[in-house]
Amino acid sequence: MLNDLLKSAFQKNWKTKLLTDWPMIMGNLTSRVSIEKIYDTSLVLGVNDTSWLQELYLLTPVIIKTINAHLEKPYITSLRFQQGKTVKKIKPTVAKPVSEKMKPPIPLTPQEKNALTSIKDPELKQVAQTFLHRCLEEPL
After folding, report:
1. DSSP string for residues in 6-39
2. Residues 19, 77 within the same domain
3. Residues 64-67: contacts with CB within 8 Å, 24+ apart?
4. Which residue range(s) make up the domain with 18?
5. pTM of the complete model
């Protein structure tokens, strides 16, 4: 049930799918290219290195074909490239010990547990479970 809801919410809008699947679409180039703007049929891509601007411009037909193949429809017809911001690598931080006792999570209902077991992707399952716990813990 929850799995179906999440799938339908993300698949209704191709722009959302494009944004969420961008790392999968671009592969190794994800660290060099980011989506700056999405228009009806075109994308503005930010490139963090000027030497890559020319390379990517020459690969425009291949990139458009790859994006449209992933979206399963030809939504994108043109690309524009511009100098983007340099992507800064974030250093992992060490969590400080918590002086207070953490509250145990609120138990899930059998229906919620059943919905979580139907999710096959372990990462999505963990995110959905964390989301459910947060929703239950926060007052309305």
Report:
1. HHHHHHS-HHHHHHHHHHHHHGGGGGTEEEEEE-
2. yes
3. 66/25, 67/18, 67/25, 67/43
4. 12-83
5. 0.53
Question: Within a domain: residue 3?
Answer: no
Q: What is the number of domains present in the chain?
A: 2
In contact, 30 and 84? CB cutoff 8 Å: no
Q: Note whether 19 and 35 are within 8 A (CB).
A: yes
Supply 43's token pair: 């994308």
Query: Which regions of the chain are under pLDDT 50?
Result: 100
- Residues 32 and 69 placed together within one structural domain of the fold: yes
Alpha-helix residue ranges (DSSP H) falling in the chain = 2-11, 14-26, 50-58, 60-71, 110-117, 122-137
Q: Looking at 53, 83, 113, which one is the last position of a domain?
A: 83
Q: Are residues 25 and 70 in the same domain?
A: yes
Closest to 42 measured CA to CA, from 18, 24, 20, 9:
18
pLDDT at 51: 85
